[in-house]
Amino acid sequence: MTHGPDDLGVAVIGTGKMGADHVRRIEETVSGARVTAVVDVDRGRAEAVASRIDGCAVHTDPAAAMASPDVDAVIVASPGPAHEGALMAAFAHDLPVLCEKPLTPDPAAALRVVEAECSLGRRRIQVGFMRRYDAEYARLKALPDTGRLGRPLLLHNRHRNVASPPGWTSAMLIEDSVSHEMDVTRWLLGHEITAVTVHTPTPSGDAPDGVRDPQFVVFETDGGAVVDVEIFVNCGFGYQVQAEVVCERGTARVGDGHALVTQTAGHWGGTIAQDYLERFADAYDREVQAWVDATRRGEVTGPSAWDGYAVAAVSAAGVRALTEGGRVPVELAERPALYGT
Amino acid sequence: MTHGPDDLGVAVIGTGKMGADHVRRIEETVSGARVTAVVDVDRGRAEAVASRIDGCAVHTDPAAAMASPDVDAVIVASPGPAHEGALMAAFAHDLPVLCEKPLTPDPAAALRVVEAECSLGRRRIQVGFMRRYDAEYARLKALPDTGRLGRPLLLHNRHRNVASPPGWTSAMLIEDSVSHEMDVTRWLLGHEITAVTVHTPTPSGDAPDGVRDPQFVVFETDGGAVVDVEIFVNCGFGYQVQAEVVCERGTARVGDGHALVTQTAGHWGGTIAQDYLERFADAYDREVQAWVDATRRGEVTGPSAWDGYAVAAVSAAGVRALTEGGRVPVELAERPALYGT
Amino acid sequence: MTHGPDDLGVAVIGTGKMGADHVRRIEETVSGARVTAVVDVDRGRAEAVASRIDGCAVHTDPAAAMASPDVDAVIVASPGPAHEGALMAAFAHDLPVLCEKPLTPDPAAALRVVEAECSLGRRRIQVGFMRRYDAEYARLKALPDTGRLGRPLLLHNRHRNVASPPGWTSAMLIEDSVSHEMDVTRWLLGHEITAVTVHTPTPSGDAPDGVRDPQFVVFETDGGAVVDVEIFVNCGFGYQVQAEVVCERGTARVGDGHALVTQTAGHWGGTIAQDYLERFADAYDREVQAWVDATRRGEVTGPSAWDGYAVAAVSAAGVRALTEGGRVPVELAERPALYGT
Amino acid sequence: MTHGPDDLGVAVIGTGKMGADHVRRIEETVSGARVTAVVDVDRGRAEAVASRIDGCAVHTDPAAAMASPDVDAVIVASPGPAHEGALMAAFAHDLPVLCEKPLTPDPAAALRVVEAECSLGRRRIQVGFMRRYDAEYARLKALPDTGRLGRPLLLHNRHRNVASPPGWTSAMLIEDSVSHEMDVTRWLLGHEITAVTVHTPTPSGDAPDGVRDPQFVVFETDGGAVVDVEIFVNCGFGYQVQAEVVCERGTARVGDGHALVTQTAGHWGGTIAQDYLERFADAYDREVQAWVDATRRGEVTGPSAWDGYAVAAVSAAGVRALTEGGRVPVELAERPALYGT
């Protein structure tokens, strides 16, 4: 699939699990962008990803990719320690960046990045804290702002993974996993975190040797809130993220199989959509994307004219049943071979 | 925003609520297509929609739009009685069509469309039964296929709207609303509907004068299933669609605020995601689309480098709390003006 | 366990599954009554039940039991065809009766019972439609009465059993199972049922040969409501009873794992208890009953003084942690042997 | 209502909210016991309670009540500081006691009680930790014992009240409220609590002046578990108690509107009852108790013989609809005046 000259040309740095997924996303799902370069220290891995895309360059050095006139913007999805260098190169080329978390693994490097961006005098970096874009978190964020529930006092979080990758350490539960809840705390409450306490139960028998899993982390904030996080990366049963904000006059939570559930004034519950364009927004998007994709492949899939005819015939019988009463049989024409059997 | 020469050029016929939404969808959300023409008998309405799109032609006659070399495919979103003409024109120009439901309002016209498509010898039409693309229905469809629950015996449906549009009649509850459940029945069960019975309670006091609302519709199918549909288009409280398949050894339902819930062998419940790319797939899509859109506007929004630094600083404190025990205060540098206050 | 002279002396007619359970209930759970006689055509079965109760007589003829001065009231739990005779005998002895459903299996006999009670000039019979005493149904009944939801229009019911007993017939699904929903319809809506339609899908492969299971039954009522009942007595996965009343401006349902859930004005949800005596009413009842039962057996069970001490010690540490900050260790005395290890 | 000579004669010490509720419970709900004495320093309050009970003595001194031959057992529901004296008196009279929590407010007094009971050489005291008798907690307790979920690692608790009584202090949140979770921790996990940390957010604006509400309490246990408790006694919206045990391979929780919900191996959900005696056990209990109570008052309430007849008539119509097909009207006899209109 090719793209137009005004599409945003994106270089993706790093073609591991996350980077490869971003390449796929831009090619198949995102409107208005294309991947014009991929970068990986493992050139073979980069080439495998690039081979599926027309006109996609391959580099092993981020700066080389950024020098190309085809690159308008950068996604950094390389390992954390490589981020600082890639970000400084992007600053040098004055390119906007979507940088996967962590910005950098250590605070000193992160502060250097901040200072460099301040020297530029304008923002170039968006950090990949993608929970802010999750529909459930977005509803949670929208709610306490209304003031109906009062000021937030406590924030309970659960964060569970089926199993940790090889080499995962006790510290990585904090740095790589709970870092999401650090961002959620700062974004959702609008507070800075002022102190941290970590409680560690006897590790699960399913945790790798020497890894303290699960952990129970407590934050204090400058807005006077207390935040707790259960992090459990070898829970075995699923990937699960839950959050409950406890406010002065009610709570709101997401992540337990429902959409947003609030509790206030003697009632618990959620909202009901008011319109089919709201309820089925994603279905319409998928329907039209599927039709565009099939049409570009020269195919027709999805519900057929025969399906449309069959429903028209049942509708006519239904209206007769409504107006005349009783049970009305449905008569269909013979199904043409074109529509299968 | 402009598009590439290989994008699919789409003519949208009808620029009412549904047609205008499809135009917006193709321009903002769908990858690989652009709107090259809009058609409406109300030329002013078509022009208002086209004015926001570079190089989008305006027509009052579908056939004129279809004659353009910029038009590769057609979306039909005009009123039902106009569908047959538009579809025949598309056949004449050999263009693929996504046709909003109903295919045509009456079975005889629908059968003429089917026969014309059969004369072409290949499928050109996809009908807009978009529930097949809804994530919940897709899971419901996937499940009974596994055979774990046995053969489907009953299918219970609820279909509720806040209020019906002006001019809605008793027959339109069947033709326009329950037609979705007719397609769901045929698609989900793979059965044809063989008979219809309609039960009508005393209408709600909130129904327009003379409109029988709600109705309770029962289908029989050639696969021996019984299907019931509550249709209630002036329920006042929300737009709601629910379905429960009752099989020989269990049930599965969607639409009551949870994702798919099954009941089998003494247990009720649902599944838990196994991976963050699965759980947060939509969030990643929205994140990258938002970043692309902002970048093309020359802006940077979303989580900032400062947010990345703050999380790195809290992470470092957290790791100290883990390794040294006790409560560890967090020290942040002063926040630069670039990142607001 | 013996009882006081003013306890109600109850004769239980029929000592099958239901009758034996009523005997156990009166002896162990109900306050103010005792079983003074049991009756069964199978004398051995009656004797086995009576042998566990002080001073409980055994009869094979209901009338003989009713003649005893120790019998103040009667529970009829014999097979349906035997009910008419037992009820007429109770009338003859002017005894109040709790009669398991059905009152009688056929309407003519039921009408004779009604006429005989009318001749007495006062009510003697309560029929065992126990769903009226279920906490969930009671909340469902309470709600529509408030008028907030408007007039009831539809009532959806599900009624599922794991497997039917041997000899269960297609007609028994109506007479023995759906009869509960007949009572629920009449009690909940306050309407009489005016017509019945039965839809039968192809039977489940797990239904006994020749039994039409499941069935889908539709009632019309003199209040203009339409009521549907799914009855499925070989569903395999559980015993399940659900009901949803659809009113003009909202719905209320019970039986899907939650307590009462309502939908109205854009929201779905339930209520939250306001008091611990409300939330834990059943726990207090069970606690005190358990203590009384153990005490009468000369035993002490349940939480011990040691448990009380341990909690007092933790409380004291907790108050120190609150007032002084930080982590406060808990010191317990050595646990005496009296309280186990 | 009078009772038999073998009923347990109970003295209730303290006739405040809790004591009066126990008196009502024993008289109306519990089988095999009666209240033979009430004790309160406020004699008038005790007399008001006793006046509704035949043969119930009134005392202001617990020991005087215990000296009566009519007193077989004691419930202590007086204020906490009075417990030690009442318990020692009960030991002196060798009477079994159900003692409301706290056993005593301070650990030293509690230890004296323990030592006194050990001197007796046998248990006399049950402490009123009634959550052990709650159906939901009982299911939670039953579950982890099975070993399917593995060893418990974390226990999350929520404990919320609408509003605290006048005079409630920050320490009472620990001593009076969280003491329930101390018992739940010890009973559910079978661990002793070894350390306590208390985190206090800025108090809610709805908390009384100077009261730190909510609080977030963390326990460590000798079994290596970490337990957290949100205590919030002025949350405004309801009385709510929730608990989630996080084990090595799954979690189980109660208190969020469902019955027990487990998460394990990719699934969340609960169990479905297998039998109507299980599902409707409480309804049967209430039905028979209501019938006994009405009968003893000389009344007949509940479903009538007319209700039984009406259902028999609808059943007969239903069976005809099943066997003959179509819609069958229901014909009822005229309703006799005895059954109202």
TrEMBL record, chains A, B, C, D:
Domain GFO/IDH/MocA-like oxidoreductase span(s) in chain numbering: 137-252
How would you classify this enzyme at the top EC level?
oxidoreductase
Keyword NAD tagged: yes
Which keywords fit this entry according to its UniProt record? Answer: NAD, Oxidoreductase
Q: Pfam families from the entry?
A: GFO_IDH_MocA, GFO_IDH_MocA_C3
EC number assigned by the record: 1.1.1.18
Question: Can you state which reaction this protein catalyses?
Answer: myo-inositol + NAD(+) = scyllo-inosose + NADH + H(+)
- The Gfo/Idh/MocA-like oxidoreductase N-terminal domain covers 9-129
- Subunit record text: Homotetramer.
Q: Which family does it belong to?
A: Belongs to the Gfo/Idh/MocA family.
Give the protein's biological function. Answer: Involved in the oxidation of myo-inositol (MI) to 2-keto-myo-inositol (2KMI or 2-inosose).
Please report the name of this protein according to its UniProt entry: Inositol 2-dehydrogenase
Organism field: Streptomyces nigra
